Amino acid sequence: MTTTDFVETRRESVRSMVFRFQSLFGLVAVFIAAIVFSPSRNGELLFLTSDNLFNVVRAVSEIGIIAVGMTFVILIGGIDLSVGAMLGLAAVGSAVLLVENDFGLIPTVLIVLAVGLAFGLLQGVASALFSIQAFIVTLAGLQIARGLARIWSGGQGVAIAYGDGPGEAPVAFSLLGERTFNGLVPIPALIFVVVAVLAILFLRGTAFSRHVYAIGGNEKAARLSGVPVTRVKIIVFGICGLLAALAGIIHAGQLNQGSPNDGLGYELDAIAAVVVGGTSLAGGRGSVVGTVAGALLLGVLNNILALNSVDTNVQLLIKGLVIVVAAGLQRLRPS
Question: pTM of the prediction?
Answer without folding.
Answer: 0.92
